[in-house]
Amino acid sequence: MSALKDEDPRIHGIKTKIRVVPNFPKPGAVQCAGIMFQDITTLLLDPKAFKDTIDLFVERYKGKNISVVAGIEARGFIFGPPIALAIGAKFVPLRKPRKLPGEVIFKEYTLEYGKDRLEMHVGAVEPGEHALVVDDLIATGGTLCAAMNLLERVGAEVVECACVIELPDLQGRERLNGKPLYVLVESH
Amino acid sequence: MFAGENGLKGDPRLQAISEAIRVVPHFPKQGIMFQDITTLLLDHKAFKDTVDIFVDRYRDMDISVVAGVEARGFMFGPSIALAIGAKFVPLRKPKKLPGKVISEEYELEYGTDCLEMHVGAVQPGERALVIDDLVATGGTLSAAIRLLERVGAEVVECACVIGLPEVKISVNLMIAWADCEKEMMLEHCNNHQSRLFVMCHCKAHFVSVLNNGWDGECYS
Fold first, then answer.
1. How many CB atoms lie within 10 A of CB A139?
2. In the CATH scheme, what is the code of domain A9-186?
3. Which of A60, A115, B130, B181 has its CA 20 to 30 A from that of A142?
């Protein structure tokens, strides 16, 4: 499901602010498969477009009994906290290995070349909580799946995954085991 | 601006913010008392109060840029930027930002690291705020200030949630503590334009401190 279909007038402004950077390689990153990197930093330079982005998510999730917003390192840390603050939820960072101090649980996931791991603090999320997972972009869905796995293992219910951008050609949506995905813009 | 002028001393929100921060001993290595702000993020009211205190301080300072230091600066900076109508600029570790960047090296305890900023993100003459969760030596903040000044911006202030009790700063900054009467002025302060605003003092884990004497450091 994409906000495009609702034709909210703010979507166009958001889409035009996302910069595409050719030939940005990062070992193992799926975005490099298409050699066109979706750069959201230019969106953050436009206060109105950035605010519209957050507002669209907040309007969708406010009053829906979501108590956890989990953001994926690092660009999920940019969008997740403002959403969490606005809807009255806690913010939980899901991080690369060895960044979180204290006790963590982890989930390994595969990249195009090799593996990576996502960690979450033990005790950050309680059983029965309703959670939202936030990242800037969904590609293959591998990272989002790892995130959902962490939350479900501690007994939370993942209500939805929310991303600014989807790369539909990489079919990440299908990998989410039926969990709903909400995105603002698609990029082919 | 100094603590006495900012009206925050005795603000009840500060105590709750400080109490929400968790100390994790011996992370990432023996002797370091890690100041963990993730527990602050789990407390919606305390997290909101943290952002509100920063927003109240900066909303009328004509700031157009909030620069957040990766990665924990990303957790506080964007909310402040959104509330004061400023852009958010991520300052990142090497090779994370796509496209053209400028780079500034800074010293670690052992070796050096690098902070990068996008070319074109900040224009000459813009007034900027630098945000990170914690200030220890000030090395990272110094690198952030240099990046912004290199492109002609004016760094109005650096803001951190936590600071060391005696901040071993390697750059000349006037420091204001939100919860403390004492002004701290460095010996070699030369009226550098930038200032540092810190919300809470670092917390020590006294059980471990008693075992080792005070040779442990608090930093993240």
1. 24
2. 3.40.50.2020
3. A60
